[in-house]
Amino acid sequence: MDPLGNLVEWIAIYGIFGLIAIGLAERFLPALPSYGVLVAIGIAADDFWSLHTAVIATTLGSFMGALGLYFLVRVIGRKRSATLLYAVGRWVGLSQPRIDWTLSSLRDREQSLTILSQLIPTVRLIAPVAAGLLGTSTLRFIAGVAVGIVLWNGLFIAAGHLAVLASPGINSSMLALKILILLVVTEGLVALVWRLRRRSAVRVNPGASGR
Whole-angstrom Cα distance, residue 190 to residue 180? Predict the structure, then answer.
């Protein structure tokens, strides 16, 4: 059984438009594991498309989705956007404290964290809404999110391609499950380090917690 492999075969029917569509869809369908789909796309690269085509097309689709969310926030205003942000957060499984942490992080270092937010599962889905809510400039958002998406998509597509070269006939879904475990552990360690640094900063400068 290889559900992701079967999904990629269906995407391949539509060629580059299928890749763009799946990149766009992952922005609005939390149940769709983007890293798993990207790995499966990398595994199938030699059969259906080139690596650079896969990266460019999926990046374009995902970028369109992120940009659409960002401008939606700018249009509907901050009050409604805050409500939207928490609603989207619940939809993708993020608690309100986690969302507040994301907002605080983006506010402190917008440019670098706009990029990094695209490399954190689930957080990457709400980051465009958060950026719009915080009033991040359009050019800064475009530059940051574009770099982040290229890194995310390129990393997993390349991982899938290298995996199939090392082990022909590899099961896409099983590889994606292993990567998910690695991502969860890595994300947990990053969050722990951030909290420890935050607490250390508060102890050194008590006024920092109220900023």
Answer: 15
| Contact indicator for 49, 19 with CB cutoff of 8 Å | yes
Distance CA 135, CA 146 (A): 18
Helices (H), 26-137: 34-43, 45-48, 51-76, 78-92, 96-108, 110-117, 123-134
Kindly report, residue by residue over 22-69, the tens digit of the pLDDT: 999 988 887 677 888 888 888 888 788 888 999 999 999 999 999 998
Amino acid of residue 198: R
Comparing 44-53, 96-105, 106-115, 155-164, the range with the smallest average pLDDT is: 106-115
CA–CA separation, 146 vs 161, rounded Å? 22
Produce one character per residue of 56-86: b if its CB has 16 or more CB atoms within 10 Å, e if not: bbbbbbbbebbbebbeebeeeeeeebbebbb
Task: Please tell me the distance from the alpha carbon of residue 73 to that of residue 94, in angstroms, as a whole number.
Answer: 19
Structure tokens at 57: 């097309």
Asked if residues 91 and 30 have their Cβ atoms less than 8 Å apart, the reply is: yes
Structure tokens at 96: 């309100």
For residue 18, what is the DSSP state? H
